[in-house]
Specification:
With 344 residues, this protein is α/β, with parallel strands linked by helices. It has 15 helices and five strands. It has two domains: 2-167, P-loop containing nucleotide triphosphate hydrolases (Rossmann fold, 3-Layer(aba) Sandwich), CATH 3.40.50; 210-343, Zinc Finger, Delta Prime, domain 3. The chain has a five-stranded parallel β-sheet with strand order 2-3-4-1-5, with helices on both faces. It is elongated. Bound molecules: zinc ion (ZN). Zinc ion binds at residues 52-54, 62-63, 65-66, 68-69.
Length: 344
């Protein structure tokens, strides 16, 4: 039942079942892999199976029905701790780790050990990692930590050496499709486009399932396809669009990043057109739009567009005022496209 929620990663399900059957579970695991491939979902199912009051070493799977399973689902299991970096912070605060360690100093409430799931292990700094080391090394008997991160190289050696590494690969195209078709998309017509963007990471693709972001993307592409580009108007439009995401500036930045991801994909598709290729899965109208942007320009033009986008992303990450960043980006994109036409 429960493991069937996980698409892909079958070898790891079998490996954990085997390790539990042989009672050889390590006390800390580092799940490494790209964002959106299902690491967190896997970790939750693993936590549930460990805490489940019906699961046995011979049948290692959460039952989804016992009190423990229901408490994990509700986010109120007293022995399950899910912690991560607050959205408005760049690094993991030491207080977060101190609190997690404090919780592990007490005995398991329901007698099945404790599970700590640490999201964003990429963002541990020296201080927050150091505070965590002793508990990570010697958690109370029967307790385990699962740390999620995107790169092994980015981990501090002190953390790495205390964890067993489990690598999560991107999903195959058919697995990705399976995950996306299981979701209720606000606009089902987006499915082929999301598949095109996913590259094995359905979670990342699902972040782009909001039809409003696609509308904004189309607005920008149409604006940039005009013979005379109104860069200032475009900049204002996208800045307002980002600010419409909600009150918090973290939401504005998040929306801007997502829009940029769609636009970078559009530049990749346009670059493919310049060398006679066809972008997979774009609809006819969209293909015509990209083709008109590509027309008479070279692939280098679109490489410059992508580079300039990366620069804007870096600026957003440095908390430079979003409106300025986006207006500057539209201005540069307009210039690059105009230059591209002259050079061709
Ligand atoms: Zn259960």
């Amino acid at each position: 039942m429960a493991w069937s929620k996980i698409v892909g990663h079958r070898p790891w399900i079998d490996a954990f079942a085997e390790v539990v059957r042989r009672r050889r579970l390590a006390h800390a695991y580092l799940f490494v892999g790209p964002q959106g491939v299902g690491k967190r979902l896997f970790a939750r199912e693993l936590a549930k199976a460990l805490l489940c009051e019906k699961a046995t070493p011979e049948k290692f799977e959460a039952c989804d029905a016992c009190a423990a399973c229901q408490l994990v689902d509700a986010g109120t299991h007293p022995d399950f701790f899910l912690v991560g970096k607050p959205e408005d912070k760049n690094e993991m605060p030491v207080e977060t780790m101190r609190e997690l360690c404090g919780n592990f100093s007490l005995k398991s409430s329901r007698g099945h050990g404790k599970v700590g799931l640490l999201d964003d292990a990429d963002d541990l700094n020296e201080e927050s990692a150091n505070c965590f080391l002793k508990t990570l090394e010697e958690p109370p008997p029967g307790s385990i930590f699962i740390l999620l991160c995107t790169s092994l190289e980015g981990q501090l050696p002190t953390i790495r050496s205390r964890c067993q590494t489990i690598r999560f690969a991107p999903l195959t195209a058919s697995e990705t499709k399976e995950v996306l078709t299981r979701q209720e998309l606000a606009d089902p017509a987006l499915l082929p486009r999301l598949l095109h963007l996913a590259s094995g990471s359905p979670g990342r693709a699902l972040e782009l399932a909001d039809p409003a972001i696609w509308e904004a993307r189309n607005f920008v592409l149409k604006g940039l396809a005009q013979p005379k580009i109104d860069a200032v108007g475009l900049g204002k439009h996208v800045a307002e669009f980002a600010e419409d995401a909600g009150k918090e500036t973290v939401l504005h930045r998040q929306r801007a990043y997502r829009l940029l991801r769609l636009l970078v994909q559009a530049w990749q598709d346009a670059a493919r057109f310049t060398v006679g290729g066809e972008p997979p899965s774009a609809d006819a109208e969209d293909a015509r739009l990209l083709q008109s942007l590509a027309g008479g320009r070279s692939p280098e033009t679109f490489l410059s567009m992508m580079e300039r986008s990366l620069e804007a992303e870096t600026q957003i990450g440095r908390y430079i005022q979003l409106g300025l960043v986006l207006e500057g980006l539209m201005e540069s994109w307009a210039q690059i496209l105009e230059r591209g036409r002259k050079e061709a």
